[in-house]
Amino acid sequence: MEHYNMNLTLKVWRQKNNKAKGGFETYKLSDISSEMSFLEMVDVLNEQLIREGQDPIAFDHDCREGICGTCSMYIDGKPHGPWHANTTCQLHMRAYKDGDTITIEPWRANAFPVIKDLMVDRTAFDRIIQAGGFISVNTGNAVDANAIPINKDDADASFAAAACIGCGACVAACKNSSAMLFVSAKVSHLALLPQGQPEHKGRALNMIAQMDKEGFGSCTNTGACEAVCPKEISLTNIGRLNNEFLVAGLTVDN
Amino acid sequence: MLNSKIPAGQLDQKWNDYKGHVKLVNPANKRKIEVIIVGTGLAGASAAAALGELGYKVKTFCFQDSPRRAHSIAAQGGINAAKNYQNDGDSVFRLFYDTIKGGDYRAREANVHRLAEVSVNIIDQCVAQGVPFAREYGGLLSNRSFGGTQVQRTFYAAGQTGQQLLIGAYQSLERQISLGNVRQYSRHEMLEVVMVDGKARGIIARDLVTGKLERHFGHAVLLCTGGYGNVFYLSTNAMGCNVTAAWKAHKKGAYFGNPCFTQIHPTCIPVSGDYQSKLTLMSESLRNDGRIWVPKKKDDNRKATDIPEEERDYYLERRYPAFGNLVPRDVASRAAKERCDAGYGVGTSKQAVYLDYADAIDRYGKIECLKHGIENPSAEVVREHGVAVVKEKYGNLFDMYDKITGENPYEVPMRIYPAVHYTMGGLWVDYELMTSIPGLYCLGEANFSDHGANRLGASALMQGLADGYFVIPYTVGNYLADEIATKAIALDHPAFVAAEKEVSDRINTLMGIKGKQTVESFHKRLGKIMWDKCGMARNAQGLQEAITEIQQLKKEFWSDLKIPGEIGEMNPELDKANRVADFIELGELMCIDALNRNESCGGHFREESQTEEGEAKRDDANFSYVSAWEYKGEHSWELHKEELTFDVAKPTQRSYK
Fold first, then answer.
1. Half-sphere exposure of A66 (CA within 13 A, CB side)
2. Which numeric CATH code is attached to B501-622?
3. In Å, how far from its chain's centre is CA B428?
4. Which residue range forms the structural domain that includes residue A25?
5. Of the candidates A17, A151, A163, which has its C-beta nearest B139's C-beta?
6. Is the C or the N end of chain A the one with fewer CB within 10 Å?
7. CB of B171 within 8 Å of any CB in chain A?
8. A 123-182 residues with CB below 8 A of B?
9. C-alpha dist (Å) from residue B111 to B11, B471, B602, B642
10. Do A32 and A98 fall within a single domain?
11. pLDDT digits over B344-368, tens only?
12. CATH number listed for the domain at residues B266-419
């Protein structure tokens, strides 16, 4: 891969805390290597800011290998930036060229209040899981792992839904800030397995109710969520969730 | 004196006997007993779920924004269990034996046997929770091979096994939260242990959003805070992984066990430049099908694909014919370093070797063509079918490599080099996972106990979940049964006040330095000292130099550190400063431990102690012990030795030839 250096202009959303009013600040960066990751580029900027006596940009990040779901930048109008099926931490600077201007914002959704700069509060996702995103089995109760064979296609489909990293890009991309792709991924992961069957009705109803309570918007099937999902969680999961929800609504015992 | 509290009796009966006689806490009393769990990775989340289910009042803390983000999530390859579903000769005994041998006879037999016993329950539990492990067409679970073993006992979920297991544990934890048994504190960092009358009775935690210090009481405190690989700055750990919680406990009296035992993983993406912030692992599972090689000619600058077969040195297959590319991690890493140091490295930095899939693509392609009845397939058709198989098995790993390097690993061999990955050392614990502080427990990677001097692949997930789901629910009860009369200690107790003051004084001191150098720059310098002198190869002179350099670095850190911002706000630089301050002290202890252990074992390679062929040479006569270091004050530690006895797995020179 050809290596090159570039000069960049960054427009970054700065907001001191949840109560403060935010705004864009512009920064110039020079000699950024095409082999850097996007977050390493931000690291370079932050070191520069600290040395100049300014406050570095606060952003969420942890594993930097695309799996923990912590990083959450809205880059040039797209969650996680320009690459398909990718997280911000795995975006590399060879996606850019000399002279580019890059705009970075936090996830924007009422249910994800800004903590500082590019950091947002996504604990609403935890509370949605608490509403039913689990199988009620206590430790020590399990039967032998091979006692219940599971059709490979179902197991694979369940895994594909379970690959969701809970980053919130789906919410950030949605014009209604809906969390349907996130919720449907969890409902599908569990509903596709025999172990998840006993609780499947209540799970769909309760998780949807919590999603509404947290202030996420409604789904209008635009598909923006699927287009930006770093783990390519499929829209068919939303179809499955709608089905689960409908059946549960009609048949659940109150 | 160190008392490891290993139960008497035959090795394979110890755990059963222990469980049969351990003290119990009745349900009415459990409701009154509070347990603090720091860290929500596999060990912490599973312990929180299991203890919540039992009815204890649990509080969990993590520095991440959600428990689901703990770094267990990044484990790729799999989890071992002695299920013997493949009928290939596996058993609890074999898993025990492989782990002891893989650890180069520096782990406790009783702990490891217990680990092997409960491994089978872990898989059952995870499947019941809905962990979508890989399956065969018949609907049953699939297995694969990992390094250091000759059976297929590794369960996996594509290259995301850690993620799926952690989500399983996280969901169980969230369920307990919804039932009111557990309270979760995210974006909180533990900065002190609170001791009352010689027992751990709580913690001081900092709310990272507001910067406020909080006091939390617990009848017992469990540290499940992971490893300390980030002492090397560059490692495969997440950016936030740190030693702080364990280090605070150490300074309050918990012994640190085998701090120098570090695992350097052989298959990571090489460093590309000075800006590098972390390293990325390519799963060990890739060594199942990939072949590792370097050119036979020194400084060969040809492209990999231009180097003919007969001019390639498949050095692992050459040196270790029995295990080939599947030798344990320490052996594979040293062999890569040996080739690169000798001038056979590849890539621009020459600090890399090839991991090649061309053979595997060809082999799988031919099998697929046979299956599909394609007669005399062309090379392209074979390749097309082979790539499809490799994509299904390892697709996400290949994609990750492509994203990071911009090279397509289906076309050209991957370049890999060893990187710091895991730390076998950690807080010393007894058989019950209690540290040398009563009431303070340590689980998972954060403790020292099960992997000796080298961990086998797919055993970290196994240990984290074993400790959390199946060990601590029994052992913590043995302590808490005597605590049922202890009332919750008021948060204005002098011990809480003093501990909080210690933390706030320390933070004020850090913020007050107002020097010129950034936290990051200190961390990088520490990492370089550690990697150069306490990394893959160590010698007495280098270690002595490192100790002096680290002491000097510490002085500089505390006199010239620059932290921007305020205490009372979200301030990631301050969080990092707190952690790096502890890494510096830990680095010194690691070098002291490495200097003391004048033998080579597992991942610890002392250049003074090697065979003529350059293999690690153990010295059982003098070093068959666990080093447990007691903190005595600035730059001062006292060594306690826990002698290791091997009644069943008799130590032999480890051979994978």
1. 29
2. 1.20.58.100
3. 15
4. 5-105
5. A151
6. C
7. yes
8. 123, 125-126, 129-131, 133-146, 148-152, 155-156, 158-159, 162-163, 165-166
9. 10, 10, 18, 14
10. yes
11. 999 988 999 999 999 999 999 999 9
12. 3.90.700.10
